[in-house]
Amino acid sequence: MLIEHFNDLNLGFIFRFDENQPERLTSRESGKLEFKESFNFGSIDDYAKTGAAFANSQGGYIVFGVRDQPREAVGLKGSGFANLDVAKLTQALNDRFSPEIAWEAHVHPIGNKSFGVLYFAEATTKPVVCTRNGTILKEGDIYYRYRGQSQRIKYPELRAMLDGQAAKERNLWMQYLQRMAKIGIQNVAVLDTLSGELSAQGNLFLIPEALIPKLNLVKSGFFTEDQGGPTLKLLGNASPITAEMVQPELRVPSSIGEADIIRAFLDGLAVISPIEYLRRICYEKSFYLPVYFFTNQLEMTLQDVVADLKAVKARGKNKDRLVKRLTMIETSDSFRLGSILANSDAAEERRDYVEKIKQQKIAPEDLGGNIARFCEAVTHISKQNCSREYLVGILKNHVMTKFQHLTAPELTAFRKSICYLDILWCK
Fold first, then answer.
1. Which domain holds residue 175?
2. How far apart are CA 201 and CA 268, in angstroms?
3. Which of 32, 98, 326, 378 has the fewest CB within 10 Å, making it most exposed?
4. How many Å apart are CA 421 and CA 427, to the nearest integer?
5. Is 80 exceeded by the pLDDT of residue 215?
């Protein structure tokens, strides 16, 4: 949760008023702050670009209801921001950037006026990359926040970002390994901070969902209790079930994972319990997985499937997103990535892959380091111009075999291409 970023201290810093001109703000646009007079979903490319720039920097706020030159606090006109569709904005951001941008919205009242505030968190995995062209977006661009402006990143900042990510990962591994060595490997427990699942000595526990976002100290790699964040400590025998830590209802076999779900789809496997595969998606980190392949194997109505999934005791938002997928009018166009008609290098690469898929002339060296672009091209094929057996072979032998080592943009493109084929072939 990002709600902590809307506390009185942070909002007080944003909404600082001139003593002599009460309508004027003294705070200025900066590396962490941008003002907009109004909110309009038609300007989503602009908001997404700024959000990505904040994510690639140190996080930041877009504040709606502030007129520029001079910075006058006019407040929001209408209810567009107050009625913001969270799922719609999340989908819009995911359609334009990868990896996913974490954000939160807040309506802040001052007197008889209200202001909309979007907070975009600093990305834990950088860089956040643009995945499609738009009115002000260019596919492949990386945006960064420079003194009140969101611009394409420059080399010094990109180099520092990549070096920082590598150093951060090394440091975290060293901290974890040193800590495990001190504790003893047989005494180590593993906590998934996304699902709240805690594995310890062969037992599985669930941390209460309300407690998960408070474990920032553990998630950030700090292990002492004197640096400001709460830690979780198990005392004595953990067998008794308490209100703070309960054993989950394991309706989903732990042996099923994201890779197994994709492999079953690619292999055309008639699984023993299709509903278990659908339930498993509720627990995964991404809901971009095949679903219609499994619903087709069930002797249940779609309504019954949805009811079953709603009863799954999963954490996070994936369950709700999966249910929404199954209840909305979803087409293959929902997962189409980029364009093959535009006059750009990216579009030309996709066109080339599409033609090679049609002619069954994809060679392993054709993919090289461009798996994401190939997967984007997959979302532009049709039943008529592609051999299903041939394409599945390419995906199994030259993409799935690298699954554990795919980058975040490659994973996103691969997952969405699988969803596209799931609708194309199975819905």
1. 154-187
2. 36
3. 326
4. 9
5. no
